[in-house]
Amino acid sequence: MLEQFKRMPFGFYVCAMGFTFERLAFYTVKYLLAIWIATEVVSGGLGLTDVKAGTISGLFVAWTYITPMFGGYIADRWLSPRICVALGMILMGAGYICAWKATSLTMIYVMMILVAVGTGLFKGNLSGINALQFKSEKDLDSAFSIQYSFVNIGSFIGTTFLAITATTGLGPIHLSFNTVFLICGLFLLIDAAWFIVAGKTALGDLGKVPFKKDQREFVHDEKKELELNEPLTTGDKKKIFAIFLVTMFSVVFWMLWYMAYLPAYYHFGYGDGADFLNKANWYIGDFLVPSAWFDSVNALVCIILGPILAMLWNKLSLRPQGDMSMYRKTALGCGLLGVSYLVMVFADGIAMSKGQCSVLWLGLVCMLMSIGEMVFSPLGNSFINKLSPAKVLGLLLGFWPIAVFFAQLLYPAVYAWTKTQTFTFGYGLLAGIVIVFGAVLWVISGKLDAWAEEE
Q1: For residue 396, what are the domain limits?
Q2: Given CB 3.0 to 4.6 Å as the disulfide criterion, which of 24, 80, 107, 277 pairs with 154?
């Protein structure tokens, strides 16, 4: 496993650490928004409903997953990706600092705009810069799986330590929600300084010019250089359609993946307000497990699985038939998510009969969700880098996250619908839907593989 880390150039770690700082702040704020908005005013919150909290939290995430498409387009044609990434970090930091002064939803909306624009310039472009360091396509899956571990190190630190300083407190440290938002803003400014200073020597000239020009400078095959300026071929269009189809299937996955946090917070979780039903016993012995640690389990599983899956994908790629296709990995992820929903239904059944279920059931739910996520999510950037025509690489790197944008817009409405149904029916039906979607994608994966290989 250590060999996977040793093979990476230092520039890889400059980019990966950039994601660590950014995700630390992002996941801290994502969790705190959902709790802060639904917490009673006397406890430092806004005192709104769980549906309103879920909607605002969903919008916060949604807009950060649509703007990378525009940021990628800019970095493809006009602006240095390195400048885009640094500017994006600074804008995100400014956004979180706005949330520091928020006493109502108005400043939260300002924060969301700044973070969305900053993420658009940052997200896909940093992955694109990182990919330029690897000349072999087979190294990309390993690189992006390890990068995903760095992403989740940030998430783990944020939700395990920083977020709980504003809820249950971390030992003697108990900060206000707004103070934690300020800390998140400062982390993004540190992130910008790290990327600019360390990247100056570690990345050399990579990413200093727009991606289309960068690709042209690094391609020595005259035929390929010509192709960058030619119209899209039929084969190119089929590859783009394959990327589009996987992205649309991912909408269903991410909609239910993110929605799973809401019953964990409000149905099974604990807190101040009528919307917290406390269906789970969060004590293990005398220790009260912070509800933020539901997020932490996800991050921890992803950190551990990153290098393990990197080795697995590398090993599978050496087979005569090659690695499992991205389509089948997406299908498998959907199946695992569906099973996690069935476990949630089972846990609710225990709570109905005994008053509460053990928090360990929620740990199993999060573990299954996280394994499903790790099977395909970190490979999306690798998949697009390998499959996308070079002339639209930045655009498609930004298009991949659009699945999460639509998922975030949809899941608050779906969550509101589940509150009109019994928990067993509502969540059992959703489990069946995502499992069926996965099965359909598995069945048609052979056809999609053929399209991907077409010249």
Answers
A1: 2-453
A2: 24
